[in-house]
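Researcher: Good morning. I'm working through a list of sequences from a screen, and I'd like to move beyond sequence-only analysis. For each chain I'm collecting a predicted structure so we can compare shapes side by side. This is the next one on the list. No need for commentary yet; just the structure.
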Amino acid sequence: MRSGCATRQSFRISSAKLSGSDTSQPAARRKEIGRDLHNAFECICCAVHHRDMVEVVATDEFREWYEDELDDAAGRAVFEMVAKLEQFGTQLPFPLSSALNGSKYALRELRVKAAGDQIRIAYAFDPARDAVLLLGAAKAGDDRFYDWFIPRAEKIWEQYLLEQGAKP
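Model: Good morning. Structure tokens for this chain:
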């Protein structure tokens, strides 16, 4: 985080001073005001950016799949999608993320395309609001994909919650 973003500062400056047309202020003071406004804007952007970012946690099952089953191109595509999840959290929009219909929990899926493959990553937000990556798999060519994918993701989710001391 940039120095100065941790504290909130209030600025009350007239619109004339914002436009730089206030000639009653010396040029050095107008530059100082401009720097203050720039720093205030950066602090606001910094706060907004960090407010929505979430911690992303990977289960052992996800990590195994990611490390052992993905080629470089698919691994990069998954990494980029997980970075978007980290950045946008619960606000990650469709079609990048969607609900896993048919689950007894509020599970979601990341939808990744990599070299023609349709990759799905089951995830959920835990009680601490961390995004937990449960399971990943390639969907292409599997007509019964969700018939096995959802129950397996639910089982991993239940185990994760138990390990965290939370109720499934």
